[in-house]
Fold this sequence. Notes:
Growth Hormone, Chain: A, mainly alpha
Amino acid sequence: MTAKALSVFVLLLIYAAFVSLGLPDGILGAAWPQMRTEFGVALNDNWLMLTLGTAGGLFSSFMSGLGLRHLGVGRVLVLTTILTGCVIVGYALSPSYAVVTGLAFLLGLGNGSIDTGLNHFVASNLSSRHMNWLHAFWGVGISLGTLIVSGVLAVEGTWRNAYFVVGAIQLSLAIAFLVGFRSLPKADTTESARDQRVEHPGFRATLALPASWASMAAFFVYCGLECATGLWIASVLHDGRGWSMQAAGLMVTIFWSSLTVGRFLMGVVSGRTTPAKIVQGATLGVICGTALIAASSAVSGSTIGGLVTAFGLLLTGLCLSPIFPMLMHDTPRCVGKEHSVNLIGFQAGSGTLGFAILPIVIGTVLRLYSTEWLGSLLTGLAVTLFALLVLRERAQLTGRSPDGLVRPW
């Protein structure tokens, strides 16, 4: 195999890994109605499962820098993909809901390591185009997960059959990674030798950098904003405005589809300007999109209100699309390559916290007051995100000494 063909092969494996990362996220929601009926649990009894999955992802994200430095990206991806594949097969074989709940922690543990490892590899070795496309394939994975469940159930299968299919995909991917990365001994050796000449700082040194905390806070807010929009907009439209479930579901599809399509499109144009300009401009677009969602409350009972809501969700999804991948890709520039492996893990962990905490807080506010508060809360988060991005950029600039090296506080 030529070097060029081998590079294409590895790139396809990386994209496939992010598809697999999205698969469990898509499959659980689609499989849950049948799963909970079989186990005899209530609609919201998956909270512990989700919490343990978040805890596993959080732990592995924050600790992934240590594993990546000692094992390398290839070994981490092979081991964690084997882990997630076995766990998903374990779901299919679980005799009780208690076993499924316990396995959720291990699934989060594996997914967190895969996420951080791939982000570090792409940020250090590939262009921003590939980083955008990488995260676009996560959206493909979510969609594919729901399609797998629908297809299995359509042929009179069960949720267990669907998990077997996804588990088989994960284990096949682990074999492909093993073959792919073992085919790169020279590249890995060269990279390892280069890394050995770079001093790998500890966690405290990375946390002492001016831009680290602003960057982690930005990921916390971004992920909470993205998740809350997709999670609660259907409830606002169905429960608050009386839309049908089909129409409310269409709005959710518009949001997630625009985010996925936006990442593919951004991969084409991302090399024409700097990540900082793209992210700040996109965040201004998110502010406009969420403001439209908020404004739609004033005309919620009319056709115009529906159109404003749809356009607001479309604009919000499109403008959110480049923020996460571009910030990840910009990490080596932000804190230096020697700190990037640590900070990428911290950023992924902060994003996981945002996914877990902010949607719950927003859901509580909507339940206590009114579902029409959603647009205003999302706009507030978008404004906060823009302020954090400005602070991150200023902290990055003031944290560099005249010789260009990143220095701590």
